[in-house]
Structures are given as structure tokens and as C-alpha cells.
Amino acid sequence: MERIEYSAIETLLQVLKRRDYVTLAPILREGAIIYDEVENASQLPRAFVDVQAAGSYRVERREDNAYFGHHVGPTTWKKFLFPPLFELFRVIRTASGFRIEGDANSENHDTVPQHKYAFIGVRPCDVQALALNDKVFQNGPYVDRAYKVRRESMFVVAVNCTEAGGTCFCDSMGTGPKANGGYDLCLTELTGDDEGFFLLEVGSERGADVAKELPSRPADPSERERAVEAIQRARTSMGRTLQTDRLREMLADNLDHPEWDNVARRCLTCANCTMVCPTCFCSTVEDVTDLTGATARRVRTWDSCFTLEFSYIHGGSIRSTPKSRYRQWMTHKLSRWVDQFGEYGCVGCGRCITWCPVGIDLTEVARAIRERQHSSITLQEEV
Ligand code: SF4
Ligand code: SF4
Q1: Summary mean pLDDT of the chain
Q2: Domain ranges in the chain?
Q3: Which atom of ligand 1 sits closest to the CA of residue 353?
């Protein structure tokens, strides 16, 4: 583990740029911290913190000068690998008929930009979300070529969390606050009375090659200890938990639990929770023609299980009520995802809680189902 000073962040960006990476990092825009391309370190939202609670998000100034003193915002890294709007191919009318251009699934596609992305500032929960995205898009029997091309050339700079966000529960899901692999480089930012600095860990050969160009010195034992303590503080100050013991079975066994009615009375089926989630992967396909009829485009767009059309099958929607749609979303994340992919589909980032306009919190819904289940079991035992 090495110590690097704050000035090394600019060096890191420029080293990555010299290696032809498009450098993507947190930036402050329109009152929220989102991810977008940055040219230099001055664009990072330094000395800002995002104050989050169920249904509430606010960016404030920090007292220190931290580069990564914020948590996760309304955007996710998946938008660069699995874009919200993606052209699959286009059909051009010709004198003799038509021709197809840019088939994203062909070897000679021209719709997949050949960018090399460097993601800078990826939180441990989001590192794990990328691993879940991999299972869906490139490790199964159906490979999304566009995703795979971008993912293979990607560089990940993770940042361990030393403060818990207002809605996080990564500790329950085993995904944070410390990253366990899945990165090329990993930073732990330490602030305090001094100016602040980073401890740097290397996770790959590609990472080691970049790290060689950063001015650094070996971290001393007291600095390492500070990092361990800071990450432990984030763990113990996390305000939410999700009890994962038998969660899959508990939800599958309680599809008629009254809590689904309670949550449905509040849910607006706005789909915000699915749009901000780093692991939601549903999409739909649409054909779009221009007004002259000369060109038609087939595009893939993000979809959500909260829309009525999502479950439309031969004359009607099979999930016509908010209750059925909320239950579908939550039981997929926390029950049937395990059957499909062997792990939970939630990384505990808390985005769906923060960005739900009515503050619905899936950890509370799960707790309510578990508690009532327990009391009914107790009741039965007493009878
Ligand atoms: S379900 Fe909510 S907490 Fe879990 S990964 Fe998605 S947005 Fe994050
Ligand atoms: S749970 Fe919240 S964010 Fe999700 S659809 Fe319902 S109201 Fe919208």
C-alpha cells in the first residue's frame, strides 16, 4: 500500500488520458453529483457532501477539502456500458430496396463506439454492481457485444467509503464499505487536521502500470491503521440494515403478505427506483422511422417493471396493479435473482430509497414482512 498526495489525482487523470482513456468521474451538475467526462481534477466535486435520506437528497459544502467526500448519486456507471438509448441498427431505403447498417451484434458493427473508459471514483457497492452487470450481459449464454467491448477495455479506480451515506446498507449485502477486488486501482481518502491524502492499492497489472507513474511512498503503519479505522467507522455508522438470512425463501413464501398492500398504497409506480438502480437491466426495443420514410432505426431503451406495458402479453398486462409491480421488483432483486444468478440483485447502495419520491425503503418493507411473519408464527405456536 502506497501513500499518494492530493496532487497525484491530476497526475492520475493525465496518465490515463495519455493511455487514450475517456476519463469519467463524479461531477456536480444541477444540484446533484453525477458521473460524466472530466478533463482535469478541478472538475471533481471537491469539498462537497451529499446529505441523503428516504426521498431526500441535498448537496452541501464540507468543512474539509475532500475529493471524494460524497456518496452515490442519481446516476450509475452502467449508463456508459448499457446506455439508456442505444441504436441496434438502421435500415436505409435504396432505389432497389433497403440496406442495413451498423448491426451492433455483427463483428463489423459501427454503432459501438470504441471508447476506452476509465471510471474514477467507483464506490465498493458499484464495483459489485459492475460484477452483477457482467453476469447479465457477458458471462451468460447471451452476450451483449457492445457491453463486452466496452467492459474489456475499461479501467476502474475504486474509492473505499470512510463515511456512510444516509441510505446505504452495503454492509448487510457484503459489498462495502471496502472494495474486495474488481478494480485496477483503489483509493482510501484520509482527511483530518492535515491537508488530506490517499492510500493506494493496486488490483491488476494494468493498475500497477499506471501506479508506477504516480509519485508515492510506502504508507507507514499509522496511516494504514487510520484507513482501517475510517472504513470501520463507515461500517458501524451505517443507519440501515437488511437481514439477508433466509431472505430469498422468506419473500418467496410471503407473496400474499399484507405489507405488499401497504406499500402499494404509497407507490406511485413512477419507476424512479429502477432508473437509479445500478443493477436493474430491463430494456425494450422500438422501431423509429423518420418523417420521409427513408430511414428506420431499431433502438434499445431502458425499461422498468413498474410500467404497465412492461408485462403486456397478448391483449393485456399481467401486472395491472401497483402491488403486483412493486412485489415483482423487490422479489426479483432479493429472491428470484438468487435462483437466476446465485446471489442477490441488490448491492445496498440506497439509491432507490433516496430517489423514491415518497421515500419507500425496501429494507423497511423486508423488515415488516419478516416481523409480521414472525409474529404470526409465534401466534400459531401459542395456539
Ligand atoms: S435495489 Fe436499491 S439499494 Fe439495491 S442496488 Fe438497486 S438502487 Fe441500490
Ligand atoms: S417504489 Fe418509489 S421510486 Fe419506485 S416506483 Fe414506487 S414510488 Fe416510484
Answers
A1: 94
A2: 2-82+113-236, 247-283+303-382
A3: 2
